[in-house]
């Protein structure tokens, strides 16, 4: 559940106009499914990390709108209690995303119960806060294991079914931090989410011939439990030298937590709308803060590129002149 924005931006102070983001969202919401759209509500969703955060909001919203949902968690009782739905439209599953056999079994159980899978949401994950120097190899690898390889395990196991159907849509939940980076204390976490961006863009190109869509979702700050102790890991061996990282850590755990501007219920609405859109995007920046941060990153990259373009492009071999 990766709801980390690289910074809370004051839109006016950085001179960015995020109105277009809101307009695009409004257009997309025209395709939002309601209980009247039966052909859309027949879709089967498979969602990881569904016992809390955006995953839980999405599961509840889908079930209330008549969709069929297979939802995974590490704790079955916690998942059942959180969702509070015992209908046959809801299939709770215990899955270890780092174990390919466990993932495969969950896909098979979903197909046995519902007969198909239409939308996959790789939502499971957790935050990692700490300077690159102070995080251990084990801490960094554990974050990649869930945030990156867990999603890849799901993709590998579900793609045969989606190719067989010649249809489907895979959402990979990244973060605006996986697009912008450059924030002290979130280097490893951002790196995992940059990876999600990279493999989703490749997946979109690979899966397109089979009628399958792929979208990478980059949320900003949403008011979930992502910044709580259970979802945000901090370094075991914190270094006093990194005062800037400790300041960021304190802000996220005590000031930003429970005060995030984004509403997870509205985020769920957008994702459902995008899943029902006839031409869904590969990139989905979720939240006004995410749109502003993305725009600022694009502006910065263009500035750096143009400043160095004259020397950076003068790197090719010179054509031979006057061959002997």
Which features would summarize this protein structure in a list?
alpha/beta; two-stranded parallel ribbon; disordered N terminus; 13% strand; 324 residues; 7-stranded parallel sheet; 10 helices; single chain; Rossmann fold
Layout of SSEs?
Blueprint: H1 19-28, H2 38-41, E1 44-47, H3 53-64, E2 68-73, H4 76-83, E3 90-94, H5 100-114, E4 119-122, E5 127-128, H6 137-165, E6 168-173, H7 187-207, E7 212-219, E8 232-233, H8 243-256, H9 264-275, E9 283-286, H10 288-312
Parallel strand pairs: 1-2, 1-4, 2-3, 4-6, 5-8, 6-7, 7-9
Helix pairs in contact: 3-9, 5-6, 6-7
What does this protein structure show overall?
- With 324 residues, the protein is an alpha/beta fold.
- The chain has a domain of 208 residues: NAD(P)-binding Rossmann-like Domain (Rossmann fold, 3-Layer(aba) Sandwich).
- It is built from 10 helices and 9 strands.
- The strands form 2 sheets. A 7-stranded parallel sheet has the order 3-2-1-4-6-7-9, with helices on both faces.
- Strand 2, helix 4 and strand 3 form a beta-alpha-beta unit.
- 42% of the residues are buried.
- The N terminus is likely disordered.
The main sheet comes to: 7 strands, parallel
Helix content: 40-55%
Can you tell me the CATH superfamily of the domain at 19-34 and 57-66 and 117-298?
Answer: NAD(P)-binding Rossmann-like Domain
Shape: globular
- CATH level-3 fold name of the domain at 19-34 and 57-66 and 117-298: Rossmann fold
Quote the beta fraction: 5-15%
Q: Work out the number of β strands.
A: 9
The span between the termini is 65 Å
- CATH architecture designation of the domain at 19-34 and 57-66 and 117-298: 3-Layer(aba) Sandwich
Helix/strand/pairing category:
alpha/beta
**Structure annotation, total helices:** 10
- Which strand order does the major sheet show? 3-2-1-4-6-7-9
- Contiguous runs where pLDDT drops below 50 for at least 5 residues: 1-20, 22-28, 30-38
Radius of gyration: 21 Å
Highest CATH level, the class of the domain at 19-34 and 57-66 and 117-298: Alpha Beta
Helix and strand sequence: HHEHEHEHEEHEHEEHHEH
In round numbers, the mean pLDDT is 83
């Amino acid at each position: 559940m990766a709801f980390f924005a690289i910074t809370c931006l004051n839109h006016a102070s950085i001179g960015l106009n995020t109105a277009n983001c809101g307009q695009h969202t409004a257009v997309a919401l025209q395709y939002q499914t309601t209980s009247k759209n039966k052909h859309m509500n027949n879709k089967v969703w498979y969602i990881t990390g569904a016992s809390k955060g955006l995953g839980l909001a999405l599961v509840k919203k889908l079930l209330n709108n008549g969709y069929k949902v297979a939802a995974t968690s590490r704790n079955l009782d916690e998942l059942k209690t959180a969702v509070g739905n015992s209908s046959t439209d809801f299939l709770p599953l215990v899955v270890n995303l780092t174990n390919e056999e466990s993932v495969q079994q969950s896909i098979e159980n979903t197909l046995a119960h519902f007969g198909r899978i239409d939308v996959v949401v790789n939502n499971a994950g957790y935050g990692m806060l700490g300077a690159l120097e102070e995080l251990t190899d084990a801490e960094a690898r554990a974050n990649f294991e869930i945030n990156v390889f867990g999603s890849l395990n799901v993709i590998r196991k579900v793609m045969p079914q989606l190719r067989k159907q010649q249809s489907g849509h895979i959402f990979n939940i990244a973060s605006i931090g996986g697009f912008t980076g450059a924030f002290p204390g979130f280097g490893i976490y951002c790196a995992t989410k940059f990876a999600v961006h990279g493999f989703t863009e490749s997946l979109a190109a690979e899966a397109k011939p089979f009628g399958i869509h792929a979208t990478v979702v980059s949320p900003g700050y949403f008011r979930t439990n992502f910044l709580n102790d259970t979802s945000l890991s901090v370094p075991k061996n914190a270094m006093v030298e990194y005062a800037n990282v400790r300041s960021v850590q304190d802000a996220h755990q005590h000031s930003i937590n429970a005060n995030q501007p984004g509403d997870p219920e509205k985020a769920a609405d957008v994702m459902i709308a995008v899943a029902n859109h006839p031409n869904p995007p590969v990139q989905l920046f979720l939240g006004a803060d995410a749109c502003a941060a993305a725009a600022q990153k694009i502006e910065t990259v263009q500035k750096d590129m143009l400043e160095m373009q004259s020397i950076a492009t003068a790197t090719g071999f010179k054509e031979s002149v006057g061959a002997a």
